[in-house]
Predict the structure.
Amino acid sequence: MDRQVAEAPDAAIIEAMAVASVEALPKRFRDHARAVVVQVEEFAGDDILADLEIDDPFELTGLYDGIPLTEKSVSDQRGQPDAIWLFRRAILEEWIERGNVSLSDLVAHVMVHELAHHFGWSDEDIASIDEWWT
């Protein structure tokens, strides 16, 4: 019996989905969101997990690393650009467990959640963009 084996989407596919989700944002947010670097890793590093007191790396699908726009000052020295880290294996695991959403919708959901930290959005702001937010 022949079996087809589907390969899990790689980091480049996850990144492309993340970029597409930024392009789908309302115009008033899109340009600022484009300035946030997207990085895809298999899992969060041990140091990140320890800092966040997370034991299971499958529990962290994304992380915002930067200074929220609501806290930035013109006197801030520019260091690294703001970034969103997406953790591919954790995202894929959640996608499989849910079984009722597309992978691109899940990646967009994680991106909106992380962008909320960047923009300083309220729960109401997030709900206006992400229908999953409750």
